[in-house]
Specification:
Elements lengths: L1 H18 L4 H15 L4 H35 L2 H13 L4 H13 L4 H18 L6
Length: 137
C-alpha cells in the first residue's frame, strides 16, 4: 500500500506542476501533505516532517545558492561575463567554443562547490550563446 501512495504522490506532483502549472514549491508542499495524510500520519507529524525536510535542505543549500547567485549577478552586470566571452571567442574561435566552455567550467569548478559554480556560470553561458548566436543547449 505505501508504494501505491508514493506513486499517487508522484503523479499528483506531476499534474500540479505540468497541467495546473502551480509553483513547484507549493506543489511539493501540497503533495507532501497529501501523502502524509494518505500514510496515516497525524497533522503534527506531517508538519514536523515537512519542517524538518525543508529546513535541512534550505540550511545546507540556502546560503550557498544565495551567495552564488549574487556572485553570478555581479559577474553578469559588471561586464566580466561579456569580457570573458570576448576573450574566449577570440582565442578559441566560434568553432571550438564548446572546448572553451569546458575549460572555463573546469577552472571555475575547482575552487567552488558545484551549486555555486553552476549559478555563477549560467549568466556566462547565456552571454556566450547570445553573442555568438548559438543555441542555448
Amino acid at each position: 500500500m505505501p508504494l501505491i501512495i508514493i506513486i499517487f504522490g508522484v503523479v499528483m506532483l506531476l499534474i500540479l506542476v505540468t497541467a495546473i502549472r502551480l509553483n513547484t514549491v507549493f506543489s511539493l508542499l501540497i503533495t507532501s501533505i497529501a501523502v502524509g495524510f494518505a500514510m496515516g500520519m497525524s497533522v503534527e507529524e506531517i508538519l514536523k516532517s515537512v519542517e524538518t525536510g525543508a529546513s535541512s535542505t534550505m540550511g545546507q543549500l540556502g546560503l550557498l545558492l544565495a551567495f552564488g547567485s549574487v556572485l553570478g549577478k555581479l559577474m553578469a552586470e559588471g561586464g566580466a561575463a561579456e569580457r570573458i566571452t570576448t576573450v574566449l571567442t577570440a582565442v578559441f574561435g566560434k568553432k571550438n567554443l564548446p572546448w572553451a566552455m569546458v575549460l572555463t567550467g573546469f577552472l571555475v569548478g575547482i575552487p567552488l562547490f558545484y551549486n555555486v559554480g553552476f549559478i555563477v556560470l549560467v549568466p556566462f553561458v547565456f552571454m556566450v550563446c547570445a553573442s555568438n548566436k548559438l543555441p542555448m543547449l
